[in-house]
Amino acid sequence: MRVVLGVSGGIAAYKACSVLRLLTEAGHEVTVVPTRAALRFVGAPTWEALSGRPVSAEVWDDVPQVPHVRLGQQADLVLVAPATADLLARAAHGLADDLLTSTLLTARCPVVLAPAMHTEMWTHPATVDNVRTLRDRGVHVIEPASGRLTGADTGPGRLPEPEEIVEAALAAVGRSPAPTGATGDVDLAGRHVVVTAGGTREPLDPVRFLGNRSSGKQGYAVAAEAARRGARVTLVSANAQLAAPAGCDVVDVQTALDLERAVTGLVQEGDVDAVVMAAAVADFRPAHYAEAKIKKTHGAGDESAPTIELVRNPDILAGLVRRRDETGGRDPYLVGFAAETGDGTGDVLSLARAKLERKGCDLLVANEVGADKTFGQDHTTVHLLDPGADEDEVVTVGPATKAHVAEAIWDHVAPLLP
Ligand code: C5P
User: Fold this and answer.
1) Domain at 2-175: CATH code
2) C or N terminus of the chain, fewer CB within 10 Å?
3) Which of the following CATH numbers is that of domain 192-416: 3.40.50.10300, 3.30.70.1620, 3.40.1440.10, 3.40.50.12780?
4) Atom 21 of ligand 1 has which residue's CA nearest to it?
């Protein structure tokens, strides 16, 4: 495939070297088109050496070849990473004052932009409008990740990891990088999936909360895999300290009630094909929230400890099952997760089977948890249980990476979506 890799002038330009490597190693013919500003961060010899092709930012070089028209016309994919606020503005307004923006105007292939900039620039109404304009025209604008920006500040605006950019770009042209175990096609194209991830925090006072040890890694992997397979993904993230996966809309929540509002709101919009409840949702929350920090002592000699009264949180997954039965509307396929340690009443699988029956969801992903198992780790072992399956039909995946488990989940679910 002929790829034009545009690079605009931000510090993240150095990451485009890895994007270029990934594309050339996958056998694509890549022409790098930097802007003048990008060349102040990474010089032309680097791009030429890595791509094996000449590099120019100008329309005045190699004029007989008419590069400002030819590059865009002949490309199968134009990917710009990083795309700065300035590049987005020039692209949205159809300017053609250098080779990259001219190429964007002549390209008739999929165009994928991976923005990177400071949070203030990303959230400025001018940039928001430009991104909307570009998306309305069919340009794929990848959501930037959240995390460390230049210097000490953090927030949305970070360039996603090179692997994620390449995956999103190849998905846009209907090609899969086909990692091991994947079906290799874009079998979730046209689907909207909602994935919850992380662990809820139930506040006691302005500084304390009841929480759990979920890192969000599994839910993020499930969301990233769905995006790679072409789905529109809304990731409802509860307190996960992770970079947003490429191509996912992230909705941040804190408590179980926030998460319930976010998920049920999305489902009620009526276009959700699947909900994957990977988040660890607190079953209980403090009955009372103290507006001021709870004090250790209440006076000289008062060494008593407070008692925390808890109330039950709604079971969000069970609520989705119930409402589906009530409305008979668009039926999202519902996936629950079970984190089991096993106890005196049964092993992990039998507890999971009982939970599947109680919850009434379409698939239960059961994993064994413990202080050093699963939580925060990159590897896990899960069992996929669906209501119709016999004991011997339970699919066990792992020990495997959470990315591989995510693939196995979508391999199972994608063919079952109506
Ligand atoms: O009952 P248990 O918490 O073990 O069930 C886990 C599954 O149920 C997970 O998919 C979790 O996201 C979901 N859940 C929920 N609402 C709760 C508790 C858990 O939807 N209050």
Assistant:
1) 3.40.50.1950
2) C
3) 3.40.50.10300
4) 315
69 token code pair: 């028209």
Q: Tell me whether the CATH fold assigned to 2-175 matches the one assigned to 192-416.
A: yes
Residue among 310, 165, 141, 316 nearest 238 (CA): 316
Phi, then psi, of 64 in degrees rounded to 5: -55, -25
- Is 212 catalytic? The answer is yes
Domain limits, the chain: 2-175, 192-416
C-alpha 237 to ligand 1 mean position (Å):
15
Number of helices (H) and strands (E) in the chain: give both, helices first. Answer: 14, 19
- Residue whose CA is at the smallest distance from ligand 1 atom 18: 281
**Closest atom of ligand 1 relative to the 319 alpha carbon:** 20
Strand partners, 198: 238
Q: What is the pLDDT along the chain (418 residues), one digit of tens a residue?
A: 899 999 999 999 999 999 999 999 988 999 999 999 999 999 999 999 999 999 999 988 888 877 888 899 999 999 999 999 999 999 999 999 999 999 999 998 899 999 999 999 999 999 999 999 998 888 899 989 887 777 777 778 999 999 999 988 988 887 544 333 334 467 898 899 999 999 999 999 999 999 999 999 999 999 999 988 889 999 999 999 988 887 788 999 999 999 999 999 999 988 899 999 999 999 999 999 999 999 887 777 778 888 999 999 999 999 999 988 676 556 899 999 998 876 655 688 888 999 999 999 999 999 877 655 556 677 788 999 999 877 778 889 988 888 889 999 999 999 999 8
- Taking the C-alpha atoms of residue 347 and residue 355, their distance in angstroms, rounded to an integer, is 12
CA 162–ligand 1 middle distance (angstroms): 33
Ligand 1 pocket, CB under 6 A: 256, 277, 279, 281, 283, 313, 315-317, 336-338
Closest ligand 1 atom, residue 337 Cα: 10
How far apart are alpha carbons 342 and 324 in whole angstroms? 30
Q: Which of 130, 212, 313, 367 is catalytic?
A: 212
- Work out whether strand 379-385 and strand 363-368 pair parallel, antiparallel, or are unpaired: antiparallel
CB atoms within 10 A of CB 274: 25
- Distance separating alpha carbons of residues 232 and 244, to the nearest angstrom: 14
Element (H, E) at 231: none
In ligand 1, the atom with minimum distance to the C-alpha of 317 is 20
